[in-house]
Design a protein that fits this description.
Length: 136
């Protein structure tokens, strides 16, 4: 089994704010991320697929095709957008990096060809903070 990773980049705005809580509680829990007037992050998205290399190509999957799939189904929808208001697959969810990684997994799964298994979504919110999601 070989693991193949493609990295993509996007910029997006968000805020973390639970409408069921008071302003003070949101400030206490989310700090600067609760800022009413939004803030942005430079996200790095690493998508890892796994499989056996093809005897014909030596590839687990054509990495250009993987990049095209990520761009079409994720990057186009989130890059230079406001995650809370512009992105339909984040509707009704708290816009945390955790929830974004899960949502990206769900967006990609239907578009990967049979035989190519999604292994991990690794999403950096900052160079020092990232989440990993393995589908469970
Ligand atoms: Ni934030």
């Amino acid at each position: 089994m070989v693991y193949l990773t493609r990295s993509e980049h996007f910029n997006a705005a968000h805020k973390l704010y639970n409408p069921a809580w008071s302003y003070e509680k949101n400030e206490e829990v989310f700090g600067k991320c609760a800022n009413e007037n939004w803030h942005g992050h430079n996200y790095e998205l690493l998508v890892t697929v796994k499989g056996e290399p093809s005897p014909d190509t030596g590839f687990v999957f054509d990495v250009k095709r993987l990049s095209d799939i990520i761009k079409e189904h994720v990057i186009e929808k989130v890059d230079h957008r406001n995650l809370n208001v512009d992105v339909t697959f984040m509707e009704g969810k708290m816009c945390s990096t955790e929830n974004l990684a899960i949502a990206i997994w769900k967006e990609l799964i239907p578009h990967l060809p049979a035989g190519v298994k999604l292994h991990c979504i690794k999403l950096y919110e900052t160079p020092r903070i990232y989440v990993e999601y393995f589908g469970e």
